[in-house]
Amino acid sequence: MVKDSDGHTQVDAIQAMLRRIALLHQSIQADRISLTQVQTPLQEMQTRIAQVTQSLEASEKTFEAVAMIHRNSLETIRETQVAMAALQALVATDQAQLQEKDRVLHALLRIIEDNRISMKASAVAQSALETLAFNDPLTSLPNRRLLQERLDRAYLNHQRNQSFGAVLFVDLDRFKQLNDQYGHEAGDGLLKQVAVRLQQGIRDTDTVARYGGDEFVILLCDLASDVSQARLHANRIAQQLSTSLAVPYPLQVNLKHTLTHIEYQCYASIGMVMFGADEATKASVLDWADEAMYWGKSEGGQSVRCYDVLNATEKTLADLYALAISNDVETANHGLRTKEYVKTLARRAMWMNLYPDEINDIIIDRLYKTTPLHDIGKTQIPYAILHKREPFTPSEWAQMQTHTLLGEQILNKIQHKNTHLERFLTMAKEMAGGHHECWDSTGYPRGLAGVAIPLAGRLMAFADVYDALISARSYKKGWPHEQACQDIISKSGTKFDPLLMQAFLLEQTNFKSIAERHQDH
């Protein structure tokens, strides 16, 4: 058996051909059966032609649809490509714009932040300017300008409420002495503490202002609808403040380049004036409070005085006292000390019933208020004599002694013009003319003796001599308290009234305290 190149046998090829012939025969038989079912071959032909024609038409339509789809697809692709390119360009533009917007936004945010910082700085600066304009830089209290604004508002409120308020004018005693001794830093430290104490002593609706230097003003609003009740309320607050301000202040001072802690006691003179809704008084209320404060200060300080018609006498006497010391700066506090000495001695004499017909509370009050006028005649003594550092010549001494009679003359003239002060000025004349008389008649100007010397003059003699002995002057040193007292006691019955000496023996310590409290500066 022969095999072909593919490895199949010829038998296999013949068998395969026979199978194809068999399949062809089956197909012919099937076609013959189909032809028998057709009437004629032409009809079959026509049928097939119609089918082919329909197929061709369907194919053409299909082709056209496919071509159209193809064309549409190409157009869609082109449009899509154009749209994509435009979209890409738009995206690129939007991205650039977005970046620009981000840049602008960041710049805007930076500007807003800068403005915020600037506005904050401006607000701080504005606040600082307002603080400088309306507040005292040392104590942070309201200054005069803000005080005046609040006083104006207080008048409007009192008009609506028909109520009364008060103004307190506060001046510190012994403040200058602190500055002179320890420097202005110590003084500033004390002023800050005073401001705190004043604020703690009033209501939240009231105002404490620094008026200048060591002066403060307190505005008390809506105290009461009745002026008497309002005055009692204001006086109570003023007294409480006076007590608070008298408590020693802890201070840090620089002594010889070393920081040292001290306690310094400083008092206050307080002037008070009531006010209501009367606009006519608004312009004067601060001046009146200031005047009332000075009346108290002229009496030695650490006091509360109210300005009203009842103070007319004290005001006149205060003015006279200012006149009395105008030519004698070196002994400026002599009048303050001697009035306290006389009051202390007279009160002791009253308690001891030494001169029951001549000493009582009314007399003591007159003595206290007129004592500072005992040397008013010195205003007529030439300045060169009054302030001479060497001993007087006989003629100068004689001229100096005339201050007693000159004082009487001055007070006489004042008494004629102020009849309401007659009793006060009568006592002042007795003191001015009699305080250099001696119990044994060796004094001047009239050489009176014993009880012929007015009681005011006899009391004043103790005060005048004691103060002269302990006080340092340009021409002498001050004596110690004990030595001065011994000298006075040794002259009982010669220079001094022996009955009043009994009172003096019991008041020596108080004399010393008074002298220390009102030292010359």
What tags apply to this protein structure?
521 residues, alpha+beta, 62% helix, rod-shaped, disordered N terminus
What would you call the structural class?
alpha+beta
Order of helices and strands: HHHEHHEEHEEEHEHHHHHHHHHHH
List unreliable stretches of 5+ residues.
Answer: 1-7
Q: State the distance separating the first and last CA atoms.
A: 163 Å
Query: Taking Cα atoms only, what radius of gyration do you get, to the nearest Å?
Result: 59 Å
Secondary structure tally: strands: 7
Can you describe what's shown?
The protein has 18 helices and seven strands. The strands form two sheets. Strands 2-3-1-6-7 form a five-stranded mixed sheet, with helices on both faces. Helix 4 (175-182) runs antiparallel to helix 5 (184-200), helix 7 crosses helix 8 and helix 9 packs across helix 17. The protein is of the alpha+beta class. It is rod-shaped. Mean pLDDT is 80; it is low at 1-7. Helices cover 62% and strands 10% of the residues. It has helices at 10-37, 41-134, 144-161, 175-182, 184-200, 227-245, 285-298, 312-324, 334-351, 361-370, 383-386, 394-401, 403-417, 422-434, 455-470, 481-489, 498-506, 508-517, and strands spanning 164-173, 207-212, 215-224, 249-255, 258-264, 267-275, 304-306.
